[in-house]
Amino acid sequence: MFIMKNNCTNKLLKAFGEDIKLSKDIWTQERTYYSIGCYKSKKWIADIIPYELLNRSIKDAVNSIATLSESDIFYEYFPDMIDTPNYGDNWGRLANYIELNNRAIAQMNMDRTCCGILSCIKLLPAIPPSAKSWANCVIISQIFPNIYGDSYNKGPFEENSIYGIRLNAGYSANIVSYSIADKISPEEQLKSFNDLAHFRGIKTGFRTVISADQIKVAYPDKQDETFNWCNPEHVEIYINESVKLMNLGFEAMFIDSAKHIGGYDCENYTGVGALPEYFQMQYILNEIRKRSGKTTISFAGEKSTDDFERYQNMGLNTGTDFITGDDFYAVRELSEKLKYNRIYAPGVEIENDNYEGGISYEQRLNRINTALFAYYQASDKLPSFMQTNDIFPLRYDTNTHHIMMTNPSYSHDGTPESHWENLFAKDDGRLYNRKVAELFAHALCL
After folding, report:
1. pTM here?
2. In what order do the strands lie in the sheet with 165-167?
């Protein structure tokens, strides 16, 4: 198994010419929210708009994360070894999954995009940590190069879908910084993100696709090939690419179109290309767990039906789009019905990646309230699914699905700072973020 021994966070700081000695961050202390009911041990930043964090330096971000230490021990040097939060092998059955579109929050300089993982690091202080009984897990939207124009932003209605990926080609230039790759490799940049998230008490994962015509396989000596589930070499590459990421610290994989694996309900399938067979996906998920040596990996599937045994036997821990958080009592009764299944349960949906608008702030807050509190015992909670928009509301003229399908810059002057300022809602977004924090404050000690 591949093991990275270096302190990747120190390497990241050095890559930017920063001293590795950390200091308490007063700016963070002034904006810290605390859990209610367990001695304020769980902390995060709230009542903010993302621009305020994204405009800070990497050193500021690491100082902020160190300042929010749950143990109240301030580490003047980032620790060499960080363990993932321990919620058992089947933690994914209870988790809140929060997807961050790391491409949308990346640095956009004129028509180029990069460094989305650095932006995720900067936002980590504003993600609520895990609760006593269940984990919060950040899912990043893009990690592999996309096939429609990786490293470029385009017009607001030009195709640049995040759902088309290249395997065997390293990591997206949208996400990692190749300009500092001589000082810290792309893999080490991803490892640093995971270490910092784990220090915050947060699990991490990534989104991937399984529709064959949405995947290209890259080779150094010939043209890319369209992925083929009947090609054993392609399947091996798919498994090994996933294992590499698990060995960098990720512990969750969100699988687009998982409902339709094995030809299930394909009259409603909207992906492009063939899907793996049911037994094939069982093999793939088992191999990812086996080859990475991790029994703690959570596999989450897009969409779930009431045939829960089908998904559990495939190797999944949860799935989306079975129930929303609109009806508190319906969710609580579903939680009670499924409390004896500790491996798989469908998730409560706040918003999914296909959302194109129409949910008010009030409805969204009601759904989050349901996701966090609709159970009789916290140990029986259903998992939930949120998007960037559910924590940090986007500007009024875009939406979650739009920024998955396109990669526009909202900068007024071609700078990343202007893009960050204009991507999100402002005064109303700040107020909404504060209300989300108030809900999490009451939930994290349960």
Report:
1. 0.97
2. 165-167, 215-219, 222-226
